[in-house]
Automatic annotation (TrEMBL):
Taxonomic lineage of the native organism: Bacteria, Pseudomonadati, Planctomycetota, Planctomycetia, Pirellulales
Keywords from the UniProt entry: ATP-binding, Kinase, Nucleotide-binding, Transferase, Two-component regulatory system
Key word Iron present: no
Matches recorded under InterPro entries: BphY/WalK/GraS-like, HATPase_C_sf, HATPase_dom, His_kinase_dom, HisK_dim/P_dom, HisK_dim/P_sf
Gene: yycG_1
Domain spans labelled Histidine kinase: 51-261
Protein name: histidine kinase
EC supergroup of this enzyme: transferase
SMART domains assigned to the protein according to its UniProt record, in alphabetical order: HATPase_c, HisKA
Pfam family, one: HATPase_c
Swiss-Prot/TrEMBL catalytic activity: ATP + protein L-histidine = ADP + protein N-phospho-L-histidine
Organism: Stieleria neptunia
Length: 491
């Protein structure tokens, strides 16, 4: 982090060739040559840092608690100015703790088990959390944090709220670091309703990234000056956790735009996006550096809940679309069984309280590989897409039951029908896996909605009777129409 606590960016971990061990380097036929520090594989750096992360948590917690004792007056009276200063120090300790957590999360991605808990979240809540986190970095320098998108409309996206907030904060922190005092940083969200996704972009007007450094980033090596540190590795992984690449566009002297996508179109969109993302993992190829024309982004002033004495931010921010473009994917992660997916469903008994179902969900998500999906269709039901063949899928079921028994005790689990679905496009129906998965998720979601009405722990003493809602019917009609359109387009 820099002196304000903002996380620095960093390049993606370098790609290893088959048979090459982590941290090893290919030696040219002409003989060994000195290895520059910037050429060291960042995966080894990430592993070294993350292995010390657990040791950093204890001293950071001790420092934060000591500052809190002084701020709260337990060791003597403090002035309001001193209290504000100590509160800022606590915030920076919290940022350091979050960075330590990110180091641990980075190693989880490298191991293939990222422990991601995705659910439908409000983009308005996400915006509030991001603004609160960035306030200590934008206020001292008068940075205008501009938001452009369909906010205040109740729109939800499918994401891990904590990881997505860290992704935006990481990228926006880098943008703030390179922005002049009083300058703007734009966070833009646009909905693509046809694809059921929301495109996010964080745009700055900094110095930009040099072409040579962009090439190094694309090759998985540490750039010399433009970007450095662990932040970009983590951001790439956080984007992958949302079935997206991390797209970096930059033009020297103009600025940089970093973008990614999240899902916004319901269960069918989750199925389609996951299948598409999984397929792209199998066909990893080097992204080309391309040129594009300039654009002007229309933005709205940030409507922060906190009063500000600074002048109103500009209403137009001219951003030249950068001439250099690269996309950073999920690294070396690929499906173990690229040709098929093991689909099944699982539900837990109605007698299990809400806390128990949440504990089961956390355990299930912890066991999922990055190439697998566990979609919660109701309070007590899930659709699972395992990266497995028939034998491995059966073994995964047994292992999950064993873990539940050992960690959660007695819990009745009911498994639905399982099937091994081909991931290879069918000549007559190209998206067979996406269609099968979408159909299963939509049907289970509707069934879960009907079961939720009869849950005893949903109705509290003194609360009003449950009212029927047309939302399930509306969502079903939307998803059925999507399936029809997809079927016509693929024939």
């Amino acid at each position: 982090m820099d002196d304000r606590g903002a996380p620095y960016g960093g390049p993606v971990a370098s790609r290893r060739k088959p048979g090459q061990t982590p941290g090893s380097r290919e030696i040219a036929a002409s003989g060994p040559k000195p290895i520059a520090a910037d050429d060291a594989p960042l995966e080894s750096i990430s592993r070294l840092i993350s292995e010390t992360a657990h040791d950093l948590r204890a001293p950071l917690s001790t420092i934060r608690e000591a500052i809190r004792l002084v701020r709260d007056g337990d060791l003597g009276k403090v002035s309001s100015a001193q209290s504000e200063c100590l509160s800022a120090a606590i915030n920076q300790c919290n940022c350091a703790v979050q960075l330590v957590d990110e180091m641990v999360q980075s190693r989880r991605f490298d191991s293939g088990f990222p422990n991601v808990t995705r659910q439908w979240i409000s983009i308005d809540d996400l915006r509030s959390n991001v603004e609160a986190t960035l306030q200590p970095w934008i206020l001292p320098r008068g940075i205008h944090l501009l938001w452009d998108g369909p906010f205040d409309q109740g729109i939800q996206i499918y994401a891990d709220a904590t990881l997505l907030r860290r992704l935006i904060v990481n990228v926006a922190g880098n943008a703030i670091r390179v922005t002049r005092e009083g300058g703007p940083v734009l966070i833009r969200a646009t909905v693509n309703r046809d694809q059921g996704i929301m495109n996010w972009a964080i745009v700055d007007q900094g110095a930009g990234i040099s072409p040579s450094d962009m090439e190094l980033i694309g090759a998985g090596k540490a750039p010399a000056k433009s970007v450095g540190g662990l932040g970009l590795i983590i951001s790439r992984q956080l984007a992958a956790a949302h079935f997206s690449t991390l797209r970096i566009e930059s033009r020297v002297g103009t600025g940089t735009a970093v973008s990614f996508q999240t899902i916004s179109g319901g269960p069918s969109a989750v199925a389609a996006r996951w299948v598409k993302w999984r397929s792209e993992l199998i066909r990893i190829e080097q992204r080309k550096i391309v040129n594009e024309d300039q654009r002007v982004h229309e933005v709205r002033p940030s409507r922060s809940t906190q009063p500000s004495q600074s002048p109103a931010p500009p209403r137009r921010v001219r951003i030249d679309v950068p001439s250099q473009l690269i996309e950073l994917g999920a690294g070396e992660m690929q499906p173990a069984f690229p040709d098929h997916v093991y689909l099944t469903t699982v539900s837990v008994g109605a007698a299990i309280p809400a806390a128990g179902t949440d504990a089961f969900d956390a355990l299930l998500q912890r066991t999922m590989r990055i190439t697998e999906l566990a979609y919660r269709t109701g309070r007590r039901s899930w659709v699972i897409a395992w990266d497995a063949d028939g034998e491995t899928g059966t073994a995964k079921r047994s292992e999950l039951e064993r873990l539940v028994q050992n960690e959660l005790g007695t819990m009745r689990m009911t498994w639905g029908a399982s099937s091994l679905v081909s991931a290879t496009p069918h000549p007559e129906f190209k998206n067979s896996l996406a269609s099968r998965l979408s159909d299963l998720m939509v049907r289970q979601t509707l069934a879960g909605s009907q079961q939720a009405v009869s849950d005893a722990d949903q109705v509290r003493l003194g609360s009003g009777p449950m009212q029927s809602t047309p939302m399930a019917t509306i969502r079903l009609e939307h998803d059925v129409q999507w399936l029809r359109d997809s079927s016509r387009a693929d024939r």
